[in-house]
Amino acid sequence: xxxxxxxxxxxxxxxxxxxxxxxxxxxxxxxxxxxxxxxxxxxxxxxxxxxxxxxxxxxxxxxxxxxxxxxxxxxxxxxxxxxxx
Length: 85
Fold this sequence. Notes:
The chain is mainly alpha-helical. The protein contains four helices and no strands. The longest helix has 16 residues, at 47-62.
């Protein structure tokens, strides 16, 4: 999921946003939270600090229950039930 995925006419903006929101509902809430925090922080730090912060965020996600749920759901061919933990 990129930061800028498409450009739409103003009249289609609401529909396009709702489509993105529908996709995001199926993503892990913890990973979305970490990504949002990193994006906001990236505005105020240099590249090296940003990369370090990204590495720390990745470490948090690797140690999460949601990571295990995502792996198990993939192996069991089912939708994940993320808990944000």
